[in-house]
């Protein structure tokens, strides 16, 4: 069972606080969507609107083309997997998973058979007669998934379900979630603040901030071609170089930056509407700095001094301070073989196709440090 | 050395005096219920079970005992159901003046049983309800409801709120959430409220005395026995009442607290 979801101009206010500000989003049937953003960005509010636990102040929510405006949570074709699992502590795993079917008046034998089928899918068939308190966190999480899927929802809503698990278990559960989603074909809407988790599981990521959608796209699009400064900084490490558009010409965009003038192709623009005279920010990922001697087109951003470096296995991570603008710290990933000596000078060289021109200037501090908790 | 020894002796002495103060009356009561003689006062003449035999042979005492059990269990059931519903409503929904409502529900705890009994007595007279075991039961619901509400309300946390939300999400109607999820989840505190309420009703005298007429509860029957003077039989029936109270507390301890500790 699966269905498309359409959110049009959804706004949710709590008194003076706007939790969700005119958000529109189309989700295709069978898609794995991840709502990504810092706490308070509105992602959980949006999920609650889909589940029917909150109703929008303005706007429309449709599932499978049907308006959900007056439909109670228990009548919606959605189920939710809660962060704290919310299993029924007094019931066996079998009864937990069968609960939704019991509410739908499915006979005992049939619902128990179905519950055991689902417990088998999540690898817990042998524990069907246990109670939730006998299980580990990861196992409870699997039961919560089986329980939510037992009623064959069109849309499964996942409210940071992996948040309470340790890192290793979390990576393993991400793979399982993804595999199960492919198998059942249900539309998944998953909320998280962990960008690695988002990249690992999502078909499409929706980056949210302050109640608005900042960016929507496949994980590689969001990472490589972010639309906003916030989106670029939330999806992993990035260097921001402030500048101004000098001129837009046929053979490229001319930009003045604190590290000198550069010319970039039109495709580097995050928004085609960016025009001459506008303040912009160049976003460069640490791994996009190149050796100055190499094939292909390159642009130079002057020399920089190595402040410090450490070896990460796959690369050296170095902090550099540019000669033209020593207050700025640039983080670069250098090849394993590079000799990174503090005090040494290297050239800042990049492939122009890996640079993105974002509208506006970044605030001095990074908008939000992501914490892998 | 000596001073620490003295303080040790003093603290043991204090303990002995304290427990003596609390339990000596009960010990005396129980001891003289075995008195082989006509008066439950020293000297102790030797042990006999004669008085217990008389208690169990006394049909009025036995029917009073049955009445007491009926009133205690019935009124406690009602108090628990009403207390649970009130707690669920106030803990789970935004209600007008909910703080005031909570206060009003708990307030009868601070009113003396005598005042509650007088109030009920004049109300029953005014409405035209004649006194019976039913009116005693209503009185006991009035005194035990605040207790049941307070105990059950205190155990309703936000964690359970999310579990109830999950039940609703899976298609449960409100009454199904209450009966199949909330009540079983809160069963330890509901049982605690029930057993405490049964103990209070079982021991209660003033309300039972003022609100009953022909059928009476055990404390009222004991009181009318006492009017004809002390004898070891009153001690024996008093010991039975005490024993039942202790048994109820033990059940509470074993079933309820053992169960919550395991979770």
Structure characterization notes:
Chain B: Its main location: membrane. Chain B: Keywords: Cell membrane, Membrane, Transmembrane, Transmembrane helix, Transport. Chain B: Residues 65-252 form the ABC transmembrane type-1 domain. Chain B: It is found in: Cell membrane. The complex is a heterodimer of chains A (373) and B (263). Chain A has two domains: 5-224, Rossmann fold (3-Layer(aba) Sandwich); 237-359, Nucleic acid-binding proteins (OB fold (Dihydrolipoamide Acetyltransferase, E2P)). Chain A is built from eight helices and 20 strands. Chain A has helices at residues 43-51, 93-103, 108-121, 137-150, 167-184, 195-201, 219-224, 229-234; strands at 5-14, 17-27, 32-36, 58-63, 66-67, 78-81, 155-159, 187-192, 204-209, 212-217, 239-249, 252-257, 260-264, 279-284, 289-290, 299-311, 316-322, 330-334, 345-350, 356-359. In chain A, β9 and β10 form a beta hairpin. Residues 365-373 of chain A have low confidence and may be disordered. By secondary structure, chain B is mainly alpha-helical. Chain B has one domain (33-262): Orthogonal Bundle (MetI-like fold). In chain B, α2 packs across α12 (232-262), α3 (59-92) packs antiparallel against α9 (187-203) and α6 (133-154) packs antiparallel against α9 (187-203). The longest helix of chain B has 34 residues, at 59-92. Chain B starts with a helix and ends with a helix. In chain B, 34% of the residues are buried. Classes of the chains: A alpha+beta (373), B mainly alpha (263). Chain A binds chain B through residues 51, 53, 73-75, 78-80, 82, 84, 86-90, 99-100, 103-104, 133, 147-148, 151, and chain B through 159, 162-163, 165-173, 176, 181, 184-185, 187, 263.
């Amino acid at each position: 069972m699966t269905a498309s979801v359409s959110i049009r101009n959804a706004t949710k206010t709590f008194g003076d606080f706007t939790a969700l500000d005119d958000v529109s989003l189309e989700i295709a049937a069978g898609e794995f969507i991840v709502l990504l953003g810092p706490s308070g960005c509105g992602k959980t509010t949006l999920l609650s609107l889909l589940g029917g636990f909150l109703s929008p102040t303005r706007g429309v929510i449709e599932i499978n083309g049907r308006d959900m405006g007056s439909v109670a949570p228990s009548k919606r074709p959605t189920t939710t997997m809660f962060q704290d699992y919310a299993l029924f502590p007094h019931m066996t795993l079998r009864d937990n998973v069968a609960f939704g079917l019991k509410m739908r008046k499915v006979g005992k034998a049939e619902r128990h058979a179905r519950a055991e089928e689902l417990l088998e899918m999540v690898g817990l068939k042998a524990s069907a007669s246990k109670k939730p308190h006998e299980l580990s966190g990861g196992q409870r999480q699997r039961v919560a998934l089986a329980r939510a899927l037992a009623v064959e929802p069109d849309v499964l809503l996942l409210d940071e379900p992996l948040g309470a698990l340790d890192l290793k278990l979390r990576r393993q559960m991400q793979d399982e979630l993804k595999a199960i989603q492919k198998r059942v074909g249900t539309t998944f809407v998953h909320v998280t603040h962990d960008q690695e988790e988002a990249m690992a599981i999502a078909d499409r990521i929706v980056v949210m901030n302050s109640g608005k959608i900042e960016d929507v796209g496949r994980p590689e699009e969001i990472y490589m071609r972010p639309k906003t400064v916030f989106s670029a900084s939330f999806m992993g490490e990035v260097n921001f170089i402030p500048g101004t558009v000098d001129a837009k010409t046929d053979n490229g965009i001319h930009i003045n930056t604190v590290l000198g003038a550069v010319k970039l192709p039109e495709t580097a623009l995050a928004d085609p509407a960016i025009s001459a005279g506008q303040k912009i920010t160049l976003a460069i990922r640490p791994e996009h700095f190149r050796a100055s001697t190499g094939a292909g087109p390159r642009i130079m951003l002057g020399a920089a001094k190595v402040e410090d470096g450490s070896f990460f296995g796959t690369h050296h991570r170095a902090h550099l301070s540019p000669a033209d603008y020593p207050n700025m710290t640039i983080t670069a990933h250098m090849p394993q073989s590079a000799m990174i000596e503090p005090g040494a000078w290297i050239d800042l060289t990049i492939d122009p196709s890996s640079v993105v021109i974002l509208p506006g200037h970044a605030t001095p501090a990074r908008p939000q440090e992501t914490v892998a908790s | 050395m000596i001073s620490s020894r003295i303080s040790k002796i003093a603290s043991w002495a204090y303990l002995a005096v304290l427990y003596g103060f609390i339990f000596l009356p009960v010990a005396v009561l129980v001891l003289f219920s075995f008195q082989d003689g006509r008066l439950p006062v020293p000297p102790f003449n030797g042990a006999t079970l004669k008085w217990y035999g008389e208690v169990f042979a006394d049909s009025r005492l036995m029917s009073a005992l049955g009445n007491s059990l009926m009133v205690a269990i019935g009124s406690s059931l009602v108090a628990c159901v009403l207390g649970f519903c009130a707690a669920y409503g106030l803990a789970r929904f935004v209600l007008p003046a909910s703080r005031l409502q909570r206060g009003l529900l708990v307030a009868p705890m601070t009113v003396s049983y005598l005042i509650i009994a007088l109030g009920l007595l004049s109300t029953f007279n005014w409405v035209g309800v004649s006194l019976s075991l039913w009116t005693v039961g209503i009185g006991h619901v009035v005194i035990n409801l605040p207790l049941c509400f307070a105990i059950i309300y205190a155990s309703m946390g936000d964690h359970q709120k999310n579990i109830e939300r999950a039940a609703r999400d899976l298609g449960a109607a409100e009454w199904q959430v209450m009966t199949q999820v909330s009540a079983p989840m809160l069963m330890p505190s509901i049982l605690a409220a029930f057993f405490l309420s049964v103990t209070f009703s079982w021991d209660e005298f003033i309300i039972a005395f003022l609100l009953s007429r022909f059928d009476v509860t055990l404390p009222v029957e004991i009181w009318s026995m006492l009017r004809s003077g002390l004898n070891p039989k009153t001690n024996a029936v008093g010991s039975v009442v005490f024993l039942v109270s202790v048994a109820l507390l033990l059940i509470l301890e074993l079933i309820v607290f053992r169960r919550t500790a395991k979770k």
